[in-house]
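User: quick one, sequence for these tokens?
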């Protein structure tokens, strides 16, 4: 071990346990996001975190457990953003835009977990696919509840519409992120996709229009 690596490990050893754990998670997220699950190594994660491998394994018994914790955190962040988007207003056009914006903000977040959530190279791992299926179901169910309440559509009809809108926003947000130098400002991109989604969903008549003051 080099002197530089030794000093990193010594400094890490003096950190409180929870702070050191967050340091490991942050380093792992950077590595997984950059190279994917399969190409990432615990050696690289430990080096990026400035800890020894024994210290790393004190917090996480293996690479999969570390990955799943990051995935859970990313999913929770997206679900919470979606809940806030839907509960923040009773105006449905505003709700649609807020939901679209939640996706765009999620993929834009520097160092965020969107690649683990949307572009995982471990999608066929049962523990990962179960989490992703549950997240997609939860997102669709939240939107479907609003759609059903406002339109009088059945649960299955509302779920189908909610899933369609979810797919539209999901793909558009990823495409926007990849556009690089030609990328539109986030607000402009959000407005465009929200307008498309709203033109579709607003075609269904409201059975319970929002109250105006």
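Assistant:
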């Amino acid at each position: 071990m080099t002197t530089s690596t030794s000093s990193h490990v010594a400094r890490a050893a003096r950190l409180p346990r929870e702070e050191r754990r967050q340091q490991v998670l942050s380093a792992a997220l950077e590595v997984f996001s950059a190279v994917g699950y399969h190409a990432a190594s615990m050696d690289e994660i430990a080096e990026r975190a400035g800890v020894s491998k024994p210290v790393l394994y004190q917090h996480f018994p293996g690479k999969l457990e570390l990955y799943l914790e990051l995935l859970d955190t990313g999913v929770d962040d997206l679900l919470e953003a979606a809940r806030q988007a839907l509960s923040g207003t009773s105006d449905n056009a505003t709700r649609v835009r807020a939901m679209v914006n939640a996706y765009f903000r999620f993929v834009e977040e520097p160092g965020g977990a969107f690649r683990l959530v949307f572009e995982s190279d471990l999608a066929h791992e049962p523990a990962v696919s179960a989490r992703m299926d549950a997240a997609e179901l939860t997102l669709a169910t939240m939107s479907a509840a609003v759609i059903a309440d406002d339109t009088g559509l059945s649960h299955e009809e509302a779920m189908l519409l909610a899933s369609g809108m979810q797919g539209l926003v999901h793909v558009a947000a990823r495409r926007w992120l990849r556009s690089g130098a030609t990328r539109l400002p986030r607000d402009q991109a959000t407005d465009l996709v929200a307008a498309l989604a709203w033109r579709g969903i607003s075609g269904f008549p409201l059975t319970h229009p929002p109250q105006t003051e």
